[in-house]
Recover the amino acids of this structure.
């Protein structure tokens, strides 16, 4: 999912200079590049690929509390590399960023962490698996993991169990993003069952639900005309799942993967998937579409996607929207929605 | 009409350039005095702010090892992984520049320099850029100039700093971010060797240097008051001299409103011009004094202040505001009187101040009220604000009371005078008083300020030097780099010197107040040299018996602790047996017996030693120690050197104080000159009868001089008690409120005599020229008085 | 009628109580007419002149100059009358010390916006001031200063000229010369002239004479 390349470059707390600098210019020289027909090797590929510029471990979960309410949870670890070669200690070129959030129907808690690589403050180890930044950790074994994050206002302690296979997007994990051969390596584990405790300001809540992990790494830069993206990961009743996104730009580019209950995947090229905003929410002057019509005619999908909490705004270094959604229409279900490029405050 | 009127008004200045000069010079000098003091203050403050912003001092709590040693990077990672949002800092010195290593991603906002707005800035920083203030002399590659950095400070990535300092894997302290996550593991589980220091403590430079700043701020306020008086006098002069012209213009049909507007604009124009000159002059003054101020602050407190001046908007704007505001204030009164001036009043100039004589009663009531308020505040008030209110009430009250006091004295003298000349002299002097009173008030404030500030600085010096004698009783001080080296030093010193006194301390909280607690060895050095503010009969015996504790004044005042009170230290309760003065220290200090100290704080070990040895053997001792146990001379401090350095610091303080003293007196002298010049025109008719009755012009000129000096002398007599009261307020009220310690006040009669001499000299110089002019008044002018009289 | 004052009253507060200076004075003057106002010291003649010149305000009565009752004007209105309609020659000259003679002469005409260089030149010549034009007032004798004051007053061609003991500070010969020139110039401009004097000789040269005694026309 190339779109998430945007987020790491946008979200890191420093904006690109006009001139750029070695390693983050328009040509990612020196970094390894994704190539077609990848051969993945596990558990190694669950770990970090520091010869690629950018990578993430991106987990979202739809939860139901013992109180019957719907909750959403996010745990994300981003890695970016300032230079192709890595060094020991403080000289390491690796930068890490963590985002954690819990969404309730009427509240949204967000917190952020930053760390340098090389000194042990943050990192990802493949075997035994652990991804961590400070006291936040996604600790393996990969299929039976624990997950933890804390912030000034909230925290959570979760356990997860994978009840299905890994899912590879695009061409067996080689996910094309444009006609220009831009691509990333992209696989998911959408079958986690997750349970645990959300520590909220007023009380602790026991929750249970499904989690979806995205793994992606690449070295590709952004296209200049693209202003943002809308990304959907939907779990439908009956067990099927849909991943779809659109890049908004001069020409909107879409991509999708249909996932059967048994893990069989069907990739769809540009144009097969569509998402149309039906309603916007004003979040402190920003117009954010929080009600969508999503269609994938090839699979008979014509649904509305509605935010559980329209105010799931991520007030992080660079802000974006990320929160749980409900699916209605031709199919029922729930999922997660991520939207970037809506942080411009309009004067209307 | 406007143009014609304006040119008539302005032509006055072309025909009387000297008057224009005195007006501009008066305004410019007042502005310069204010802006000079403000420039020094603003510059020093900006330097502290930069330092505070870089270090996060006063903003964030910190973690340090209890024994003061560096911690390892593993401790830092362990804390982060336990949910502690802390950021590492390493400190050291390179080429005389303080090097700070920080970690930009975890540093709380306000700690990291502002320069990380871009990826390339961060990438550059994390790979070796060193941020420095402009003009920092550091022989390193990749220096990046950033105006937000404190002077003589360099900031780099922690990795870069560890490399430069040769201290891989070490961290000196951790800064604790304000917002911490829920669910943190306790510090004692992860790193029990670390102690948390509250944000307001530690090396909080501001609270130290504020003591010195108080000095300058007081000076600034006083110079402001002096300046306002002078501006007032200068404006009054400008109106007085053109009274006749103004009347003629009105008689010829210039509307009053136009005249008021034009004169207002004209004065504002002059004020802008004079204000700019004054700011320039103030800049020069500050530029000359600042290196001394910077050296003083660095020497006293280790605070880095740039020795060069930048044109900071805050002070030139405030200085221009003083020039314009002071002018507007003075001019509005003068313009108001102008608008009330009857068109047909006598053309004879009439000192504006004479009119003030009618308000003498009101003035007396206001003065008495202000002095009563001051008295009340001195008895009951507390806090810095009350202290400064007290200062203001005291000074303004005294200034307002001055003319009344002088009138009373002159009236008394006039009644007792015998000869004709004498009694004419006294009566005539009394008649001059209203015209001179503004200038005399300025002189009073200038002299009182000088007496007050000199007393404060000198008292500070005397106290501090005595304090140094007490604290630096040993001839030589040695620092140990490691506990092993400490052992070597102690053994070596025991063999080669008369006595060795280990200095060991830990930082803890006593009565909730951050305190450095020392474990002292029982030795005559302490018993002979230390003086207590208050103590039991046998403080040393009680302390060394392990039942008593000695504390500093700061701890006693803040904790409300008195002699005999119990104080909980670690696990035991000790009795306070002595309170000692500890000048300039922002935090508490306490002393217990060495043995007890070792039981209570076993992890601490001495890092410094005082060595008693006869002064002539110091050099041999240092050389032998370097040869035998490898402790370099750089790790030793010669007591004589410290004292010489401290005295040097004070000498520089005196340079600053003396320069400002002289400047204030010069400005006050100028006010007298201007007042006398204003009076000259109205003097002739007053003197003509005396001349006609047989007094020579030379005699009259001499008497004019004597009169001024006499008035200055009388003013000085009022200024002395006022200045001492001012010093008392600064030392015993404001200082205690601001810093928690009281400076003993000493008197310096010889200094006051000198000051009085200077003031009289200034007054005499100011009066000399008008007196000479008077002595040379052509007889025809004096005759005219009779022929012209209607 | 150029000037018509009716029932003009004025009193001052003094240390001895209220002093009634003018107790209902009537006075009339036509263009081209000259009138001498005589009286003892304290008879109120200078006060009357100041009231007519718009320098002060009467307590009662009206002072109509050229159809305008100046007693009813505000400060700005009276200032306009002073610079445009009447001209006053003061006993103390009241020159502006910081500007040159030529600028003093031109001053009031410029204020009134009626500066006529040729006329100013003529006045300077007639008053014998041509050699003094670049000097400052303090460099001139009393008689010369008074000539400057007369030139200044006449430069804007005022309709009404008021003179308050214009020769009080001059010796007899000079006084006679100055008055001759003044009368000639007033005659040429057809202005009205009201002169306060206690000199009977001077009063004799005016067309009409009025005597003021304790605030009333005798």
């Amino acid at each position: 999912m190339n779109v998430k390349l945007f987020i790491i470059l946008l979200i890191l707390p420093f904006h690109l200079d006009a001139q750029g600098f070695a390693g983050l210019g328009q040509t990612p020289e020196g970094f390894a590049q994704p190539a077609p027909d990848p051969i993945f090797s596990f558990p190694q590929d669950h770990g970090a690929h520091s010869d690629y510029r950018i990578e993430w471990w991106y987990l979202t979960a739809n939860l139901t509390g013992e109180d019957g309410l719907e909750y959403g949870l996010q745990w994300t670890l981003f890695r970016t590399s300032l230079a192709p070669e890595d060094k020991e200690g403080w000289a390491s070129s690796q930068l890490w960023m963590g985002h954690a959030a819990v969404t309730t129907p009427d509240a949204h808690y967000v917190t952020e962490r930053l760390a340098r690589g090389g000194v042990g403050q943050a990192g990802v180890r493949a075997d035994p698996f652990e991804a961590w930044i400070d006291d936040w950790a996604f600790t393996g074994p990969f299929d039976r993991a624990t997950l933890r994050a804390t912030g000034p206002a909230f925290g959570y302690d979760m356990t997860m169990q994978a009840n299905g296979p890994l899912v590879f997007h695009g061409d067996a994990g080689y996910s094309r993003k444009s006609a220009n051969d831009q691509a990333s390596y992209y696989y998911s584990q959408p079958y986690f069952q997750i349970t645990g405790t959300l520590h909220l300001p007023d009380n602790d809540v026991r929750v249970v639900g499904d989690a979806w992990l995205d793994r992606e790494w690449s070295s590709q830069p952004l296209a200049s005309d693209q202003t943002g993206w809308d990304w959907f990961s939907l779990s439908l009743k009956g067990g099927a799942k849909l991943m779809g996104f659109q890049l908004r730009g001069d020409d909107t580019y879409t991509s999708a993967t249909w996932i059967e209950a048994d893990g069989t995947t069907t990739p769809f090229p540009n144009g097969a998937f569509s998402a149309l905003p039906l309603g916007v929410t004003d979040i402190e002057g920003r117009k954010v579409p929080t009600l969508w019509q999503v269609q994938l005619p090839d699979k008979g999908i014509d649904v509305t996607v509605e935010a559980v909490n329209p105010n799931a705004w991520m007030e992080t270094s660079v802000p974006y929207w990320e929160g749980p959604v409900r699916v209605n229409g031709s199919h029922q279900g729930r999922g997660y929605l991520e939207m970037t490029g809506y942080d411009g405050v309009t004067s209307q | 009409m406007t143009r014609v009127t304006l040119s008539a008004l302005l032509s006055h200045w072309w025909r009387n350039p000297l008057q224009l000069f005195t007006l501009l010079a008066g305004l410019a000098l007042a502005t310069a005095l204010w802006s000079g003091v403000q420039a020094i203050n603003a510059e020093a403050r900006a330097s502290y702010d930069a330092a505070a912003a870089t270090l996060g001092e006063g903003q964030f709590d910190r973690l340090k090892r209890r024994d003061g040693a560096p911690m390892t990077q593993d401790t830092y990672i362990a804390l982060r992984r336990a949910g502690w949002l802390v950021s590492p800092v390493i400190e050291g010195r390179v080429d005389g520049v303080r090097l700070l290593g920080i970690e930009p991603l975890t540093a709380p906002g306000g700690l990291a320099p502002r320069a990380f707005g871009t990826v390339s800035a961060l990438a550059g920083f994390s790979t070796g850029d060193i941020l420095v203030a402009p003009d920092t002399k550091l022989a390193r590659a990749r220096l990046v100039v950033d105006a937000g950095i404190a002077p003589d400070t360099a900031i780099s990535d922690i990795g870069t700093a560890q490399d430069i300092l040769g201290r891989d894997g070490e961290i000196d302290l951790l800064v604790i971010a304000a917002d911490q996550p829920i669910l943190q593991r306790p510090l004692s589980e992860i790193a029990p060797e670390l102690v948390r220091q509250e944000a307001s403590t530690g090396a909080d430079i501001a609270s130290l240097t504020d003591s010195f700043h108080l000095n300058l701020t007081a000076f600034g306020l006083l110079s402001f008051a002096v300046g306002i008086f002078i501006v007032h006098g200068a404006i009054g002069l400008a109106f007085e001299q053109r009274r006749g012209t103004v009347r003629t213009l009105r008689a010829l049909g210039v509307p009053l409103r136009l005249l008021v507007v034009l004169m207002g604009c004209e004065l504002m124009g002059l004020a802008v011009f004079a204000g700019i000159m004054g700011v320039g002059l103030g800049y020069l003054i500050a530029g000359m004094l600042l290196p001394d101020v910077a050296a003083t602050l660095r020497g006293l407190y280790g605070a880095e202040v740039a020795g060069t001046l930048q044109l900071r908007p805050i002070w030139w704007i405030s200085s221009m505001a003083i020039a314009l505001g002071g002018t507007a204030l003075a001019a509005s009164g003068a313009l108001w009187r102008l608008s009330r001036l009857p068109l047909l009043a006598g053309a004879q100039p009439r000192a504006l101040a004479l009119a003030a004589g009618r308000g003498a009663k009101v003035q007396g009531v206001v003065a008495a009220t202000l002095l009563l308020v001051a008295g009340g505040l001195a008895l009951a008030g507390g806090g810095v604000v009350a202290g400064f209110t007290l200062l203001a009430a005291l000074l303004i009250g005294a200034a307002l009371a001055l003319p009344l006091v002088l009138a009373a004295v002159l009236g008394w003298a006039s009644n007792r005078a015998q000869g004709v000349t004498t009694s004419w002299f006294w009566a005539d002097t009394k008649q001059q008083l209203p015209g001179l009173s503004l200038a005399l008030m300025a002189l009073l404030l200038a002299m009182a300020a000088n007496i007050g500030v000199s007393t404060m600085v000198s008292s500070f010096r005397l106290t501090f030097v005595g304090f140094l004698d007490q604290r630096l009783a040993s001839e030589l001080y040695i620092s140990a780099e490691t506990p092993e080296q400490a052992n070597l030093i102690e053994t070596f010193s025991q063999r080669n010197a008369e006595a060795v006194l280990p200095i060991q301390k830990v930082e803890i909280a006593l009565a909730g107040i951050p305190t450095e607690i020392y474990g002292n060895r029982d030795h005559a050095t302490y018993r002979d040299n230390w003086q207590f503010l208050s103590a039991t009969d046998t403080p040393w015996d009680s302390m060394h018996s392990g039942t008593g504790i000695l504390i500093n004044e700061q701890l006693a005042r803040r904790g409300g602790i008195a002699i005999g009170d119990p104080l909980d230290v670690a696990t035991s309760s000790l009795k306070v047996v002595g309170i000692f003065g500890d000048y300039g220290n922002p935090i508490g200090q306490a002393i217990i017996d060495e043995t007890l100290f070792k039981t209570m704080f076993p992890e601490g070990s001495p890092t410094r030693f005082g060595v008693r040895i006869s002064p002539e053997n110091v050099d041999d001792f240092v050389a032998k120690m370097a040869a035998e146990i490898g402790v370099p001379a750089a790790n030793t401090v010669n007591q004589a050197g410290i004292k010489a350095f401290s005295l040097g610091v004070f000498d520089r303080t005196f340079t600053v104080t003396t320069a400002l003293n002289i400047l204030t007196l010069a400005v006050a002298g100028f006010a007298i000159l201007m007042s006398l010049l204003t009076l000259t025109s109205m003097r002739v008719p007053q003197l003509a009868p005396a001349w006609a009755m047989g007094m020579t012009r030379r005699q009259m000129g001499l008497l004019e001089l004597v009169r001024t000096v006499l008035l200055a002398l009388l003013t000085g007599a009022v200024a002395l008690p006022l200045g001492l009261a001012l010093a008392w307020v600064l030392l015993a009220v404001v200082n205690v409120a601001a810093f928690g310690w009281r400076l003993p006040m000493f008197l310096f009669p010889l200094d006051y005599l000198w000051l009085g001499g200077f003031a009289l000299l200034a007054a005499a110089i100011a009066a000399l020229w008008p007196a000479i002019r008077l002595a040379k008044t052509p007889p025809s002018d004096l005759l005219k008085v009779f022929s012209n009289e209607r | 009628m150029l000037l018509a004052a009716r029932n003009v009253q004025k009193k001052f507060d003094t240390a001895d109580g209220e002093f009634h200076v003018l107790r209902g004075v009537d006075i009339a003057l036509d263009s081209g007419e000259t009138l001498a106002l005589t009286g003892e010291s304290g008879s109120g003649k200078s006060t009357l002149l100041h009231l007519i010149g718009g320098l002060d305000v009467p307590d009662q009565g009206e002072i109509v100059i050229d159809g305008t009752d100046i007693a009813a004007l505000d400060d700005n209105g009276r200032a306009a009358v002073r610079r445009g309609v009447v001209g006053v020659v003061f006993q103390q000259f009241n020159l502006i010390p910081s500007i040159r003679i030529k600028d003093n002469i031109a001053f009031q005409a410029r204020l009134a916006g009626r500066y006529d260089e040729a006329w100013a030149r003529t006045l300077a010549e007639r008053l014998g001031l041509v050699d003094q034009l670049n000097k400052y007032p303090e460099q001139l004798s009393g008689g010369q200063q008074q000539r400057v004051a007369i030139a200044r007053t006449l430069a804007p061609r005022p309709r009404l000229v008021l003179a308050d003991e214009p020769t009080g500070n001059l010796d007899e010969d000079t006084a006679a010369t100055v008055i001759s020139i003044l009368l000639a110039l007033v005659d040429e401009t057809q202005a009205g002239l009201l002169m306060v004097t206690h000199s009977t000789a001077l009063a004799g040269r005016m067309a009409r004479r009025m005597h003021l005694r304790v605030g009333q026309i005798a």
